[in-house]
Amino acid sequence: MGYNLTFWTLKIINFAQGDLLMIVVMLSLSFGILWFKLPMVLAVIIALIIAALFGVLLQKVAISPLLKNPSSSGWIVSTMGAGIVLQSIAVMLWGTIEMAFPYFSGKQVIIKISSATLDMQWLIIMGVTLAIVLLFEIFVDNTIFGKAIKATAADKFAARAMGINTDKIVIFSVASSSVLAGIAGVLIAPILSANPYMGSMIGIKGFAAAVLGGMGSTKGALVGGIIIGISELLASGFINPALKDAVSLLILFGVLVFLPNGIFGQQYYEKV
């Protein structure tokens, strides 16, 4: 969903998304445990605000100036570069040692279903994800601001001509995209642990899910993520555990070659 928001309003892919996810996790851990001993909820909120501000700064400094030339693809390098900068700063601040991120329940809770076991954190992830998707769909379809986002996504120049402040819409989408990355990070961190490199592979998997579902489609991102997750588990369990992280790359390659619009993506035609 974070990738989709920036794609909607800017028609670009923010390749720093995974590292924004990582920086929220590391800042939350630092504010809550390592540095200031703040309540974890407050630490996460502060980290999300910082991520939103960084996302807006990235859009102002490294993305928008490069979009003045429609044929330029410099935003690819600038967003990748921003991700590398974030990763380097994280290594300098926290080193490369993996750190445990606290569970929301205070400790790991395992649910037993017959002979199978399930980490409670996975249920929390699924619940929060569904809630965010539903709330976002309601917001976009039933509020004036949400409709302004859709108008800006459809045609920024026409939306501006109709009196919509498209600059405000872009800032909102970039900040929200960064916040979504951070929420994903703090949800998955208790299971994966926290380190400066955690965002790289998660970012690739998120991008693969968005492309598989169809760029710009919220339900597509959800379905794409489920398909990739199930494919990873099947490949790991029935073929080789070493293939787990390679599956998303293979799916991404296959989609780009054989299904470039994704499952729910639409093909647009433009007269020139």
UniProtKB/TrEMBL annotation:
The keyword Nucleotide-binding does not apply. It is found in: Cell membrane. Keywords: Amino-acid transport, Cell membrane, Membrane, Transmembrane, Transmembrane helix, Transport. The chain crosses the membrane at residues 12-36, 42-63, 75-97, 122-140, 169-191, 221-240, 246-264. GO terms for cellular component: plasma membrane. The keyword Transmembrane applies. One of its GO terms (biological process) is amino acid transport. InterPro entries: ABC_transp_permease, BCAA_transport_permease. It holds the Pfam family BPD_transp_2. GO terms for molecular function: transmembrane transporter activity. It is a multi-pass membrane protein. Its main location: membrane. Belongs to the binding-protein-dependent transport system permease family. LivHM subfamily. PANTHER family: AMINO ACID ABC TRANSPORTER PERMEASE PROTEIN (PTHR11795:SF445), BRANCHED-CHAIN AMINO ACID TRANSPORT SYSTEM PERMEASE PROTEIN LIVH (PTHR11795). This is Branched-chain amino acid transport system permease protein. It comes from Thermoanaerobacter uzonensis DSM 18761.
